[in-house]
Design a protein that fits this description.
Layout (H helix, E strand, L loop, with lengths): L13 E4 L5 H7 L4 H7 L1 E5 L1 H9 L4 E7 L6 H12 L3 E5 L1 H8 L7 E6 L15 E6 L4 H14 L3 E5 L8 H7 L8 E4 L1 H10 L3 E5 L5 E2 L9 E5 L8 H6 L2 E4 L11 H12 L5
Parallel strand pairs: 1-4, 3-4, 6-7, 6-11, 7-8, 9-11, 9-12, 10-12
Antiparallel strand pairs: 2-5, 3-5
Helix pairs in contact: 1-5, 3-4, 6-7, 6-10
Keywords: Methyltransferase, Transferase
InterPro entries: Alpha/beta_knot_MTases, MRM3-like_sub_bind, Ribosomal_eL30-like_sf, rRNA_Methyltransferase, SpoU_MeTrfase, SpoU_subst-bd, tRNA_m1G_MTases_N
Pfam family, one: MRM3-like_sub_bind
């Protein structure tokens, strides 16, 4: 007989942790460090929405941790059951343990541990009408996460991280994506590899540059586009600026001499995707 009761994790499927000295707490806390994330291929994300977004697209969830204060909430119980059914670990922990894991005084009551996913650059073949974003040496994880979220919002296809960028799997970057990282492919490439790929990808490279003479509203054109943005302090390096098919600038009427990187990228993306929105 079919049951209409929501799926929940059975008591034997849940591990309870209240001790801050538990080795699992130490391992999860270490995910705040890039070295440990690189070694394990895991990353930490806060909030039930992040876990449910990942589960909805079959993104691997290694562990779900939740406070005992929310264990009886149907959405939390269902998420825990799905994580267990897919081979993940379910942890019922104290709020003190959650604070220790997240390094925050007021952590969210649900935390997930996810598998990292990066797409090879060779698999990126932009089609007509598609827009990708290439970010060179971006340093601010908040900017990176916000750009990923904006890419998702406008229906662009993905983000290529060029050179020594900040880690897209840091807690700050993941938080800023608001779950969009599970919908936006991420690619890592050296500057040399990206430039070599761009020569054979049959795509227009549109870059923003202070010395550009073209207005950003003239950037849209038929065919695939890669929007190339430089880092927060110095903009594009000369090799990437020279590789751009067209360089544009966003005019400003006030006293500011530059825009925040995430804001500028958002302005460009909405212009490039104008006909599709």
């Amino acid at each position: 007989m079919r049951s209409d009761r929501p799926e929940t994790a059975a008591p034997g499927q849940v591990k309870q942790i209240t001790s801050l000295a538990n080795p699992l707490v130490k391992d999860l806390r270490a995910l705040a460090m890039k070295k440990h994330r690189d070694e394990t291929g895991l990353f930490l994300g806060e909030g039930l929405k992040l876990v449910t977004d990942a589960l909805a697209v079959n993104w691997p969830v290694d562990t779900i941790c939740f406070s005992g204060s929310v264990r009886d909430q149907p959405a939390v119980a269902q998420a825990a059951a799905k994580v267990h059914a897919r081979g993940g670990t379910v942890l019922d922990v104290s709020e003190a343990v959650l604070g220790k894991i997240t390094r925050r005084d007021n952590p969210q009551m649900v935390v997930g541990v996810f598998r990292q996913r990066l797409r090879p650059l060779a698999e990126v073949r932009p089609a007509d009408g598609e827009v990708w974003v290439a970010l060179e040496q971006v340093r601010d994880p908040g900017n990176l996460g916000t750009i990923v979220r904006t890419v998702d919002s406008v229906g662009a296809k993905g983000v290529i991280l060029v050179g020594e960028t900040c880690d897209p799997f840091s807690v700050e970057a993941v938080r800023a994506t608001m779950g969009s990282m599970f919908h936006v492919p991420l690619v890592r490439a050296s500057r040399e590899a990206f430039l070599a790929w761009a020569k054979t990808a049959r795509t227009r490279l549109v870059g923003t540059h202070l010395k550009a003479t073209h207005d950003y509203r003239r950037a849209a054109a038929p065919g695939p586009v890669v929007l190339v943005m430089g880092n927060e302090q110095q903009g594009l390096t000369e090799p990437l600026a020279e590789a751009c098919t067209v360089r544009v600038k966003i005019p400003m009427a006030g006293q500011a001499d530059s825009l925040n990187l995430a804001v500028a990228t958002g302005v460009m993306l909405y212009e490039l995707r104008r006909d599709a929105l």
